[in-house]
Specification:
- The complex is a heterodimer.
- Chain A has 13 helices and 17 strands.
- Chain A is α/β, with parallel strands linked by helices.
- In chain A, the strands form 4 sheets. In chain A, strands 1-14-13-17-15-16 form a 6-stranded mixed β-sheet. Chain A has a 4-stranded antiparallel β-sheet with strand order 2-8-7-4, with no helix packed on it. In chain A, strands 11-10-9-12 form a 4-stranded parallel β-sheet, sandwiched between helices.
- In chain A, helix 4 links the parallel strand 10 and strand 11.
- The longest helix of chain A has 23 residues.
- Chain A starts with 22 loop residues before the first strand and ends with a helix.
- The N terminus of chain B is likely disordered.
- Chain B has 3 domains: 123 residues, no CATH class; 70 residues, no CATH class; 103 residues, no CATH class.
- By secondary structure, chain B is mostly helical.
- The radius of gyration of chain B is 23 Å and the shape is globular.
- The N and C termini of chain B lie far apart (56 Å).
- In chain B, helix 12 packs parallel to helix 15 and helix 13 packs antiparallel against helix 15.
- Chain B has 17 helices and no strands.
- The chains are: A alpha/beta, B mainly alpha.
- Chains A and B meet through strand 15, strand 16, helix 12 and helix 13 of A and helix 2 of B.
């Protein structure tokens, strides 16, 4: 069958060693360190006090304005500290530390309501109060996406199930296990922005997930599941839109300028749980993986769990890691230590050994053109790299660095191992600072 | 806090955290590997003297790179194989009887003047081996164009050519040059001796001659004669992804168009045979697959490669047909090398989402 795709792209080894490994609940951590900033925008404002007892799912941080998100207690217990700790967003981010105490009430989120009983406004309000953010990694507050300015005409909801990052398999497993819940989430999201068309894009290497989704949508003619070629970065928002709708998001604009709203499958699932069960975003599924993890798998974890505890729960590591990444190997965020919490946008934790991490030595550009051929954004990465290396700042703007979404493909294919993505980031910062 | 320091030993670097499994040495040594069949055949055809030329060029190229990089206080990178390619390509573009000290000088010129002075690997404008060949051609044209392997007394055309129905005198004149030389000068020489000019084409465009050209049983530079072995090498490069089809195909197509049109409109007797003769002779194959595809000195985009190849083909064919030299491949590539920055400028990718 014809599978859609986009310009450029690469085929890194998939390394999905946890694909097909059933979800498992990690045991409740004794401590959760919950950052107030787990999303793009302003950090939440703590609404609890030290030594206060909180229930599971209780609001502990209130969204600071519209471009922010609520934060909830992921375990019941005592607030032992409200202070600054390292988080993925900041070396010193405000966190609420909760030490587990008391018990879970088993019926807290079990009352299910019919999905057709909600109005668009109700759905949006529940999404906002549950503190839902994009679960694919960027953690953009979902409420903001569901409220486009009135002059933007949205006609399609796109659900991102591509999961093109190597190693990660959490979206794959989510679709296999919770296809109906995801479709219900899609229905709710469609209603909230009043669109009549929903397209779920999934790479053709996830056959089981594709089938599960197909079966789940069968009754709803408005939702379609589209198989896409397995190619990195298929899950990038702009490439996904191009693949599924043939539209391009204008340079410097947002998906809504192309008439679409993109949500991750994980987000659709969280929306379903928030709306139908009133469950805030306090836990999520993540892939814990890497050749040095003793028990790699897909785990349900409480938000705010520390990497240290997760390592222990996964049976430990066979050797000292050289890199710890939040996310996959292409776009993942490197952590300086294990003393970091998992947050709402974390879709995986990847441990790389010294050998896998390689070294950072690089050679001059030999103009092989690989980066030019594969750049999904249509940039000239080698020129940007050379300009940054030589400090030719006046060239940056003409090379459109801001159109780069930092997918890392250029650096991946470079035979000289040039850190092109890093160079482009430098150009981006420079161009932004001059604006 | 010792424990904390102990923990903070992770490598922090920008994404991506994995890289494709190839590197510069990987690419370069693959090219060397792909050149070995044709080079080996050159030694087989021309004898051990050809091996000496190859070894001299390679060794002096590697030594030159080592020396200049030490003098310029750059890191020594001879292990990456780039200098080996330059030396090998230069040798393959020299006659098997070429004086060794001149060959060594050519390698020094290629590495020091053409490559390292411009900044080293990645920064040179012209293909080092070809620029060195042009330098040697200007300096010692006699040595470059007259000392060929003799298949039999006075015959430097081909080891398997047989006289079928033309006068001995005409046959001697025709076989006294390499294929392209014979084509360029043959008609004039035959006319000067008052002989039948048409015998030239009957020998050069014959089936047996075309076959010799394909397998490489003809006079010429060490590495350029066997089209078969060059294509084997080209296949290795194409399959491993070191080169793409764009430059060579565009080169050969535009070259063929010019050659075919010329023979079709001026000398309509055998345009197809004439085209085949041109395709199989001289440095076209080694040029199109191994030199025009040099990453550093060719355009980066596929569109640019098509333009680059088309320009090469046009110039090479024009020099062969109308120029003073029998062969134009090396100058065509050098000339187009010069235009690469302009080609690159006008063949940029179209930015996603920009009109």
């Amino acid at each position: 069958m014809f599978t859609s795709t986009f310009r450029g792209g690469i085929h890194p080894p998939q390394m999905k060693i946890t694909a097909g490994v059933p979800f498992e609940n990690l045991s409740i951590p004794h401590l959760c360190r919950i950052p107030m900033q787990q999303h793009t925008g302003k950090p939440a404002i703590p609404v609890v006090e030290k030594d206060q007892f909180v229930k599971e799912g209780e609001l502990i941080g209130k969204a600071d304005g519209l471009f922010s998100a609520n934060v909830h207690a992921s375990i019941p217990g005592r607030v032992t500290d409200i202070g600054f700790y390292p988080t993925p967003y900041s070396e010193k981010g405000l966190c609420v530390v909760i030490e587990a105490e008391g018990s879970f009430s088993s019926d807290s989120f079990s009352e299910k309501k019919d999905i057709s009983s909600f109005s668009a406004e109700e759905i949006k309000e529940k999404v906002a109060s549950a503190g839902i953010v994009g679960m694919g990694g960027a953690a953009f507050p979902t409420f903001v996406k569901l409220n486009p300015p009135s002059d933007k005409k949205i006609d399609t909801l796109i659900i991102n199930a591509a999961e093109c990052e190597p190693y990660l398999a959490v979206d794959d497993m989510l679709c296999r296990n919770y296809a109906e819940e995801i479709i219900a989430g899609c229905t709710l999201l469609m209603k909230s922005v009043s669109v009549e068309k929903c397209v779920i894009g999934i790479e053709d290497n996830k056959k089981h997930a594709y089938k599960a989704l197909q079966n789940a949508v069968s009754s709803d003619k408005r939702i379609s599941v589209i198989k896409m070629k397995t190619k990195y970065p298929q899950g990038s928002e702009k490439q996904l839109i191009e693949t599924l709708t043939g539209r391009q998001v204008p340079s410097g604009k947002l998906p809504m300028d192309a008439g679409v709203i993109v949500q991750n499958v994980g987000t659709a699932f969280a929306v379903y749980q928030a709306v139908c069960f009133g469950k805030p975003l306090i836990e999520r599924f993540i892939t814990v993986t890497g050749s040095i993890v003793k028990k790699p798998g897909n785990y349900k974890i409480k938000i705010g769990s520390l990497i240290t505890d997760i390592i222990e729960e996964c049976g430990g590591l066979t050797e000292e890691p050289a890199k710890i990444l939040l996310g996959g190997p292409m776009c993942g965020f490197p952590l300086p230590s294990t003393d970091y919490p998992v947050i709402k946008g974390t879709n995986g934790v990847l441990f790389l050994s010294k050998k896998e991490a390689g070294n950072d030595k690089y050679d001059p550009c030999i103009r092989c053109g690989n980066c030019v051929h594969i750049c999904p954004c249509g940039l000239m990465p080698y020129e940007l790299g050379n300009a940054v290396e030589k400090g030719k700042t006046d060239f940056y703007q003409s090379l459109s660095p801001l159109d780069c979404m930092l997918c890392g493909s250029c650096a991946y294919v470079c035979p000289s191992k040039r850190p092109l993505t890093h160079f482009i980031k430098i150009a981006q910062q420079y161009v932004r600072s001059k604006k | 806090m010792a424990e904390n320091n102990e923990k903070n030993k992770m490598i922090l670097s920008s994404a991506p955290h994995i890289r494709a499994g190839y590197s510069i040495p990987h690419v370069m040594w693959l090219v060397v590997f792909a050149l070995i069949p044709a080079a080996s055949y050159g030694v087989y055809l021309n004898g051990l003297r050809a091996l000496w030329v190859i070894l001299t060029c390679v060794a002096s190229a590697v030594f030159a790179e080592f020396l200049i990089r030490v003098l310029l206080k750059r890191s020594v990178t001879v292990h990456n194989g780039a200098a080996v390619i330059t030396g090998l390509l230069l040798a393959m573009n020299l006659s098997p009887e070429f004086p060794l000290w001149m060959a060594a000088l050519g390698s020094f010129f290629a590495i020091i003047i053409v490559k390292e002075i411009f900044g080293g690997l990645g920064f040179n404008i012209w293909n080092p081996a070809l620029a060195a060949r042009a330098f040697l051609m200007l300096s010692w044209p006699g040595h470059m164009t007259s000392k060929w392997h003799q298949f039999s007394d006075g015959n430097i055309l081909s080891g398997s050519v047989v006289n079928s129905g033309i006068s001995d005198q005409a046959f001697t004149i025709i076989t006294g040059a390499t294929p392209l030389g014979a084509l360029k000068e043959g008609a004039v020489k035959l006319a000067e001796s008052g002989l039948d000019v048409s015998s030239l084409h009957s020998v050069l465009f014959s089936n047996s001659m075309l076959k010799s050209l394909f397998f490489g049983d003809v006079g010429g530079c060490i590495g350029e004669t066997s089209v078969l072995f060059l294509l084997v090498g080209a296949l290795i490069l194409l399959v491993t992804g070191v080169i793409t089809w764009h430059t060579p195909v565009s080169y050969i197509l535009s070259f063929s168009t010019v050659i075919f049109s010329y023979y079709f409109f001026t000398d309509s007797s055998e345009p197809v045979r004439a085209l085949l003769f041109h395709l199989l002779s001289g440095g076209l194959m080694i040029g199109a697959f191994f030199m025009a595809t040099d990453m550093v000195t060719s355009p980066v985009s596929k569109k640019g490669m098509l333009i680059f190849g088309a320009g090469c083909g046009l110039i090479a064919a024009s020099i062969r047909l109308f120029g003073g030299y029998p062969e134009g491949v090396s100058y065509s590539i050098l000339f187009m090398n010069t235009l690469v920055p302009i080609i690159d400028r006008y063949t940029k990718n179209k930015v996603y989402g920009k009109r």
